[in-house]
Design brief:
- The complex is a heterodimer of chains A (82) and B (384).
- Chain A has 82 residues and is mainly alpha-helical.
- Chain B is an alpha/beta fold.
- Chain B has a domain of 233 residues: Aldolase class I (TIM Barrel, Alpha-Beta Barrel), CATH 3.20.20.
- Chain B has a ten-stranded mixed sheet. Chain B has a two-stranded antiparallel ribbon with strand order 2-6.
- Chain B contains 14 helices and twelve strands.
- Chain B is globular and about 60 Å long.
- The chains are: A mainly alpha (82), B alpha/beta (384).
Chain lengths: 82, 384
């Protein structure tokens, strides 16, 4: 199965962004704060101090969102069972 | 112009298996969508869609693969005459009778496929059965492996049972060992002709959340890219993506039944009975003018009722920002009114997914080791 295309889940990316190595990321898991639209938007913001800096300043969250969107388009969850 | 998100086309109501929780009333009806209905979709529906729209067109609401590939080839030749260029086609199947001629068809037409697999064999076979009562797991797994051999990766729908919630490791290992990376979970809801859910009377929201949280932890620890659709949706909204509940606005979703009947809002409305809403049958594309269907008083009234229900959700629910107002079909079926808020679907699907993700982020934050990449930007870009 290793030949199958592997794209990492956005949930993992955000979890990684919340790690102790990224304490600047404003993650609050208090439910009242957490469940706001965009509450994690800053978690993927460029961190100049992060290891393995990247020259390109593309938008990683947009990349990941498009991946989710592709998933949605090919398999919508609103029709939930068969 | 019109930009629908989802178009469900029912090639046939018939299904070749008999799942314990099936809610489709017409699953013994062997009728097939006629050439006249296909032409009506081509001539009355697709020309109204904005050319730059990208609707997901899904063959579903019965078992699509009981209709021969030759029918689909003819259907595509008709529909693609006016379908938006960026429309995608998907078949949602139980996978038990996917003949070898389907694989070249899927490749040639770019049609994607979703399979319904309820996890490990014992769980699947206990409820997804042939009409003779035998399990279907071996058949669908054979199909899965044939698709993988052809480098086609189906997305998987899994319906959970309360007993599933205690088998996190078995489920994770099933997905991992069978190369399944995209999965969507649901519960057997009381809907259509399925009168009661196996979750009825049980407060299982916490259990579902723990199940999803457990899967996320194992996948993360093993670096297995398991996408749980309900969690990914919430993650995308919290990361700044747009909240979009396509079920609360008219004609974001369009369902065309095999006989040409039309509904919108929730796809499951096709199976919901309400005399006040004419069973959510908003017209028929063979006999009614589509402009009149589109702008009918019944659609407008239904929309207004749904909006009042959404307002209640907004006022009452902590999860509104990641949900957008729930599923109208569940509100109707469970609460008897569109002007209502929380349902079992909320308690057992949306809310647990949100809580699982919150717990997962909190858990990841406490960990001091095991991160498989240090910079999320690199992480995102390397795997894009």
């Amino acid at each position: 199965m290793s030949s199958l295309k592997q794209v990492w889940p956005l949930a993992f990316v955000l979890a990684t962004a919340s790690s102790p190595g990224h304490v600047d990321a404003p993650i609050d898991t208090n439910p009242e704060e957490f469940f706001r639209s965009g509450s994690l938007a800053d978690a993927l913001r460029d961190n100049p101090d992060a290891a393995g800096g990247v020259e390109s300043r593309t938008e990683p969250n947009r990349i990941q969102l498009s991946q989710w969107s592709n998933f949605f388009n090919c398999f919508s969850g609103v029709w939930r069972r068969c | 112009m019109w930009r629908p998100v989802l178009i469900v086309l029912q090639p046939t109501p018939f299904c070749n298996i008999s799942c314990d929780y099936c809610y489709l009333r017409g699953r013994d009806n062997r009728s097939v969508m006629s050439a006249e209905v296909l032409c009506a979709i081509r001539d009355k529906v697709f020309p109204r869609i904005s050319p730059d729209a990208a609707p997901a067109i899904i063959w579903h609401a019965g078992e699509p693969t009981v209709v021969p590939v030759s029918w689909y080839r003819q259907a595509y030749s008709v529909l693609r005459q006016t379908a938006p260029r960026d429309a995608s086609f998907t078949v949602q199947s139980n996978g038990i009778a996917l003949g070898r001629d389907w694989i070249p068809f899927l490749r040639e037409t770019g049609t994607q496929i979703g399979l319904s697999i309820d996890g490990p064999q014992a769980f699947h076979d206990s409820r997804r059965k042939t009409k003779n009562g035998k399990g279907t797991w071996s058949l669908v797994i054979q199909t899965l492996h044939e698709l993988h051999a052809a480098r086609i990766s189906p997305k998987v729908v899994t319906v959970l049972h309360p007993l599933s919630l205690h088998a996190i490791d078995e489920y994770f290992e099933f997905y991992r060992d069978n190369g399944i990376t995209h999965v969507s979970f649901s519960i057997d809801e009381a809907e259509g002709c399925h009168a009661s859910s196996s979750f009825n009377g049980r407060d299982q929201g916490q259990g579902v959340a723990e199940f999803l949280f457990g899967l996320l932890k194992r996948a993360y620890a093993e670096k297995y890219p398991l996408h749980i659709k309900e969690v990914e949706r919430i993650a995308s909204i919290l990361a700044g993506g747009e909240l979009h509940n396509e079920q609360i606005d008219a004609w974001q979703v369009l369902v065309v039944a095999a006989n040409g009947d039309v509904t919108t809002f929730s796809p499951e409305f096709m199976e919901v009975r309400s005399s006040a809403h004419r069973n959510f049958n908003f017209g028929n594309i063979l006999t009614d003018d589509f402009d009149r269907i589109f702008a009918s008083a019944l659609v407008a009234r239904t929309h207004a009722e749904i909006r009042k229900g959404v307002d209640l959700c907004r006022a009452r629910c902590r999860y509104f920002a990641v949900c957008g107002g729930g599923a109208p079909s569940n509100k109707m079926q469970e609460n008897g009114s569109l002007e209502s808020a929380e349902t079992e679907f909320c308690r057992l699907s949306v809310q647990p997914a949100a809580e699982a993700f919150r717990k997962f982020v909190h858990w990841a934050r406490q960990r001091s080791d095991g991160h498989f990449i240090s910079n999320p930007r690199v992480f995102a870009e390397q795997h894009a």
